[in-house]
Amino acid sequence: MTMKSALLLAFFILFTMGKIDARDTLTVSSKKLVYKLNIKDNIMPGTWRNTQHAFAEADSLGADLMLIHMNTYGGTVLDADSIRTKILNSPIPVYVFIDNNAASAGALISIACDSIYMRKGASIGAATVVNQTGQAMPDKYQSYMRSIMRATAESHGGDTIINAQDTTFRWFRDPIIAEAMVDDRVYIPGIIDTGKVLTFTPKEAMQHGYCEGIAENVPEVLEQIGVSDYEIIEYEPSFIEKIIGFLVNPVVSGLLIMAILGGIYFEMQTPGIGFPFAIAAIAAVAYFAPLYLEGLAANWEILLFIIGLILIAVEIFVLPGFGIAGLLGILFSFTGLVLSLIENVVFNFDGIQPEKIMTALTTVIIALFAGFMLSLFLSKQMFTAQHGPFSRLSLNEVQEKEQGFIGVDTSMKSLKGKTGTAYTVLRPSGKVQIDGRIYDAVSNVGMIDRGSTIVVVKDEAAQLYVEKV
């Protein structure tokens, strides 16, 4: 047997014994594995969830680089900050291709990446924190955004320069430029004047260190990176993940809370258990299930909400008036709804940003108030309106006194002056028997023993008053 034959035989034996696999062949492939994540919608909790799954899958596949294909006008700062942190801590190099827009939260994510590539006509910047109406938030929120934008730019620091006076740094991405994308008070000579929020075009971004190249598509980006032989695997969220992403949207969560409150309210207006209760139950499941799967809502938080509903039901249907049980029920239900939106561990809120807590509180409070007002409006329109769709389920007729309708039994007025016997002891109230029928009665003077003869002396508000004969 020749040496070549012996080597081939040894290779075959080792391969069949599982000592080596297809990756250990004599010819090693130089093909790079590129994992692509699309961020082409508003940045929401679902975006952060998809990012976590994408990075985990890229790591398990041994990807050589991550490429974020971006086109977004922004979204929630908290979720963008989580994505930013994930990128900064990633052992896999992360590149971003801005296809058209990287505004606001999108700019923050882009700056966190190792390299930025932009398409002609694209833009990056305009990271001022705004509310849902587009109005700038108070400076407390802007200050937080300014700091994380600066910190993100500083994470891509350049060379350290030591002069005679002190130590200075030359940045690849100037932190002051990043701050100018948030604060219109920042003045940078030759770049931006006060009163304007900074937004870069591709050429401007390249000139000032916020873009490494201009490309028309993903292959051109990879070519500029220096990757020619590659395989692209694109993250594709499953159908269930898409549903979860939709349900954890703060707007949808608020609508579900409104449905829960409205279902409970309408159920209290109708006899038995029916359609409104089903709506409330489905809305509760749709609210808590995705939060539970995401690790936000814990078992005890869901249980707290259920206990709150039970206490409210006990207060309404069992106990008279409205007291401790009702107040505790409202508190428990409200707390369960709020805490399910926060990544707390029991009542430990370490590491949770105040903005996250305020967002959860605002979502629940606005949803509860809107749900209550909407329930009152719909109740009037659907149930009490003369031609409402559910008008037959409620009593709309008024029994007028002039038409002979009264609220008490008048038949006992004819018993005045009649005699009977005390069916029980009257002290002073009890029961009497008159003409073979039992009536509730009150002794008008003193106690009356059982079996004594009595006479009806008066009747007031359907109540007989008797005296011993």
Task: Describe the overall structure.
It is elongated, with a radius of gyration of 37 Å. It has helices spanning 3-16, 45-61, 77-88, 105-112, 139-154, 175-180, 202-207, 218-225, 239-247, 250-269, 275-293, 299-317, 324-339, 354-384, and strands at residues 32-39, 65-72, 94-103, 115-118, 123-125, 157-162, 167-171, 199-200, 213-214, 230-234, 419-422, 429-434, 437-443, 453-460, 463-468. The longest helix has 31 residues, at 354-384. Mean pLDDT is 80; it is low at 10-29. It folds into three domains: 30-234, 2-enoyl-CoA Hydratase, Chain A, domain 1 (Alpha-Beta Complex); 240-376, no CATH class; 404-468, OB fold (Dihydrolipoamide Acetyltransferase, E2P) (Beta Barrel), CATH 2.40.50. Strands 1, 2, 3, 4, 5, 8, 9 and 10 form an eight-stranded mixed sheet that branches. Strands 11-12-13-15-14 form a five-stranded mixed beta barrel. Strands 6-7 form a two-stranded antiparallel sheet. With 469 residues, it is of the alpha/beta class.
Question: Brief description of this entry?
Answer:
This protein is α/β, with parallel strands linked by helices and 469 residues long. 43% of the residues lie in helices and 18% in strands. It folds into three domains: 205 residues, 2-enoyl-CoA Hydratase, Chain A, domain 1 (Alpha-Beta Complex); 137 residues, no CATH class; 65 residues, Nucleic acid-binding proteins (OB fold (Dihydrolipoamide Acetyltransferase, E2P)).
